Amino acid sequence: MRSRVRSGLAVAAAVALLAAGAVPAGASSRPAPGGSGAGDPYFPFAGNSGYDAVHYDLDVRYQPPAAAPAPLAGQLDAVATVTIVPTRHLTSFNLDLRGLEVDSVAVGSRPATFTREGDELIVTPRTILPRGKEVDVVVTYGGATGRPRDIEDALYGWVTTRDGAMVASEPDGSMTWYPVSDHQTDKATYDVAVTVPEGLVAVGNGDLVGSATAGGWTTWEWSSREPMASYLVTASVGNYELRQWTTPGGLLNIDAIDRDLAPAASAGLAQTAEMIAFFETRFGPYPFSSFGAIVDDDSVGYALETQTRPIYSTRANEGTVAHELSHQWFGNSVSPERWADIWLNEGWATYAEWLWSEHDGRTTAAENFADVMATPATSSFWQTIVADPGPLGLFAGAVYDRGAATLYALRERIGAEAFDALSLEWPARYKDSVATTDDFQALAEELSGQDLEAFFDAWVWTAGKPAVP
Ligand code: TRP
Ligand code: ZN
């Protein structure tokens, strides 16, 4: 039964790639152009092939909108240095970039020619890039920033705000502000420097290297030593107060709280240290070197688990804080190999919210599960195929709630001992990597010693309300 589903998916993938005209790179050793996509059926042009991006050094200067005339527009001027390692001999290669203007591209410090096609920046270096030889690609670019939207019409990417920018890029919005291999299969480390008018703060992921002010501009430097998927990169700008503190366990937190917000807006952060300690007992060591929050008085309409530093729209609620924190294990350290696998992010994060709620003496996981299962079988809620929700269904309610119910039901099915082992082993085995729904089923089978084919078929590969085990 599953092989039928799976081959259906493979055919759909091939059809989507053909329909979209994406070109996968060949595997021969003959020099050839890189491909325009990483092979994700939902977003055929996201990411690229023919090379691995290993590091981004972004140097961005940003002037937020002057007053508040509609439409909001800022000005961004930047130099991106992308270190790539060709995985074949390359005659040309692609980066993803939407909007903005490219002034110049250099490869290995020699000028290169480039063209733009849709959201693809196609770079042709002077000479063939040999497979395996690391090389720096320097892109000088800039232009007016606006308020980009994803295919569901939600704000994402570099979202210009009254006093800065909110940068939240799931699934493919990083290309709205820097040239990138914009898919989680190509994780990289980052050094990001953002220069903003003095008085404003730019907040990135990872560690704060420092800040320096000269001539009315302040440069904020951030560094992420752990590999990061492009959709988790932020460089948000606002009227923030930075608060640094350390958990009893020794983890540095850097919170950026908008000064224009009332204290109640960030009250949901109060139990962050307890949450980290609690999740570490369930999911293993916190996967990164720091944590924190960005709470902005503007809104993109949702919160995002930007790596080490989730971003919140106008308010950080306690449940949302638990959700975004748990994503550091589920989504950020272990990322979905294809966007179809997003329930591995959202199901786990919702289930983690249930665990925290129960631990904190409120609604139990059993009650939350019962709530989901109280949804009538006739409801359209049950029509989403959790492990293949479609590109417009990434954030469907069922991806979150049926995804969480799947994990609860799996625990009932394989028992607490095997499930607890799975909760620790999944983030450990796939740390700093990507994994699929099949990988998850395989690990659950390995740790439980059970054949879970029918279980996963019913819960994530089939529409319709599953029977409670
Ligand atoms: N991944 C986010 C979370 O669950 C949610 C999210 C990202 C989202 N982009 C969105 C929700 C667009 C709605 C619309 O934490
Ligand atoms: Zn989430």
UniProtKB/TrEMBL annotation:
Its cofactor is Zn(2+). It comes from the Bacteria. It catalyses: Release of an N-terminal amino acid, Xaa-|-Yaa- from a peptide, amide or arylamide. Xaa is preferably Ala, but may be most amino acids including Pro (slow action). When a terminal hydrophobic residue is followed by a prolyl residue, the two may be released as an intact Xaa-Pro dipeptide. One of its GO terms (biological process) is proteolysis. Pfam families: Peptidase_M1, Peptidase_M1_N. Keywords: Hydrolase, Metal-binding, Metalloprotease, Protease, Signal, Zinc. Residues 305-459 form the Peptidase M1 membrane alanine aminopeptidase domain. Residues 55-232 form the Aminopeptidase N-like N-terminal domain. Its EC number is 3.4.11.2. Residues 1-27 form the signal peptide. It is an enzyme of class 3 (hydrolase). One of its GO terms (molecular function) is alanyl aminopeptidase activity. Belongs to the peptidase M1 family. PANTHER family: AMINOPEPTIDASE N (PTHR11533:SF297), PROTEASE M1 ZINC METALLOPROTEASE (PTHR11533). This is Aminopeptidase N. It comes from Jiangella anatolica.
